[in-house]
Specification:
Helix content is 25%, strand content 32%. The chain has 261 residues and is an alpha+beta fold. It folds into 2 domains: 117 residues, no CATH class; 135 residues, no CATH class. This is Flagellar basal-body rod protein FlgG.
Amino acid sequence: MSIAALHIAQTGLSAQERQLAAISNNIANANTNGYKSERVEFSSLMYQTLREAEKSEGSSALGVTSGTGVQVAGVSRDFSQGTVKMTNRELDVMINGNGMLKVSKNDGQIYYTRSGQLKVDPDGRLVTNLNQPLDPEITIPSDTSQIIIGRDGTVSVKTNASQDSQEVGKIELASFINPEGLKPIGDNLYAATESSGEAILGEPATNGFGEIQQFALEGSNVNTVEELVNLIEVQRTYELNSKVIKGADDMLSFASQKIGN
């Protein structure tokens, strides 16, 4: 039984190590624009049935089962709104509400992000701060003097030749039935999966999609105080599992000494 306890406690240590990694990642990204905090979900491992419950008189009506530990069932993400960071920069946008920006990469795939720190690349395209063009592409004229992004995603410009605004494109948003099923790939980007479902496309400020807010960015939704509380809980749980291992090891040592004598 002590050997079983060692194995069970080891699964507990492994689970808390994964939890600690998630907490560390959340805290490290506390100032990352558009970052969504992650949470580790646990489930119990299979149970061993040592004796079935019986109905006959004098028999145990409960039976005897033994758990075998814990496992990481998955890592979920909290897609709630992050903090509002006013920047007064005309190419900074945030989504107030549901939806994600669509961007493309060199591999030809479409990815999704909540980080709206945009800029204009040498070809005049609106791109993210890591040079991923918006999809569909929006091109800014070279003689632009002012860029205006409306709450409905309409992108208009004023040029040196004319102070009358002209529309050059419109930002399109995507949403998912199960956003927690999106696969994070780094660079604040997510890829659609079978779990997330296909992207539902739409215009900002319509059909349940959020509005576009210019001159602002969405900060991380990490609650650092909550993460510190979680860190203390992980430390205590890890310590308890370590004590179980020590206790089981002491029992095995004691039994070995008695049998040896």
